Amino acid sequence: MSANPNPASRPWFYLSYVVLILCVWSYFVLDKDVWALFFRQWQVMTTMVFGAFIAGSSPEGSASIAYPVFTLLLKISPDDARNFAFAIQSIGMTAASIYILNKKMKLEWHYIQYVTLFGLPGLLVGTWFLLPYIVPATAKLIFVSLWFGFGLVLWWQNRNKEAARLDSLPVLKTKDKMLLSTFGFMGGLISSLFGTGINILSYCFIVSYYRISEKIATPSSVLIMTVETLFGFYLHAIVLNDFSARSFDMWLACIPLVIFFAPLGSYVIQFLPRRRVAQFLSIVLMIQYIGAMLVLRPPMLMTAFSLALITASVISFMWLSRQRNKA
Q: How far apart are CA 44 and CA 2, in angstroms?
């Protein structure tokens, strides 16, 4: 695939997808006469404008924005927030993925292959054996603390304009395949809790350890999360049948937004220098952490725990980076 997509080329497959989704959505809305739900869901829709853009322009899924806002500010249950995340990302991130493929952006297919393949069983294991025992607020604090630490490392690594990055993974040895598979499985476990996670975890790994360019790792992570979220949506809507009416209403209201704003994020990132992409992600991760701390207002002990996690995260990702440099 070309590393320099032609911005002037028409993304016909993406446009066809948009027309199809809007036709089906319009038919349902008109047939059921549910226009009033847009007035009831304005807060959710506003959140998803930003969430969808972040999902298309970074390795963070829209759930990274929506989950804390929904559960902590709008008092939506964690189950509804997670299921909505899978549902809405199945539309928005699919749109972004089709746009990415249509524009022939440079991707790292070995990364996509191994992480996606092992992320799916991780999602299954997490759904049945991890999700019932996790306290959502504590899990979210752990989530944002770990990624904040990575954001600090990423900012530090990109302070130098000449920081070297690679366009693809090296020839994969058995160790490399095992590492990618392990991070894929762990990412699936995290995604089972929040509706996102495999994308940012695996992204952190390949950027730190393999020094893959952020401009290649980002769209690749979008494709990974797209497969994971389609599977998660099917799992909860069809297999477990725990997709509530509230989640459905939120999903219906946001569909016409995310099919445009997620690809818009992917479009914008084409024109940003690699270093700016890294800095953008660092800022997103920092804002996410600060926002979570302001909303959660954890007690002193949990705050200390969060700071310890950030320290451990910084040390871990710095160590990963240096380990690869020694290889």
A: 37
CA 207, CA 32: separation in Å to the nearest integer? 47
Q: In this structure, what DSSP letter does residue 132 have?
A: G
pLDDT digits (tens, 9 = 90+) for 225-242: 999 999 999 999 999 999
Q: Kindly state the DSSP code that residue 212 receives in the 8-state scheme.
A: B
Q: What angle do CA 251, 254, 259 make, to 5 degrees?
A: 110
The reported pTM is 0.88
Nearest of 262, 226, 207, 1 to residue 107 by alpha carbon: 1
Note the pLDDT tens digit of each residue in 184-208: 999 999 899 888 889 988 998 998 8
Q: Which of 117-131, 179-193, 207-221, 285-299 has the lowest mean pLDDT?
A: 285-299
Q: Report yes or no: 99 and 165 within 8 Å, Cβ to Cβ.
A: no
The Cβ-side half-sphere exposure at 263, using a 13 Å CA radius, reads 22
Lookup result for tokens 């349902």:
28
Of 221, 73, 81, 96, which is closest to residue 147 (Cα–Cα)?
221
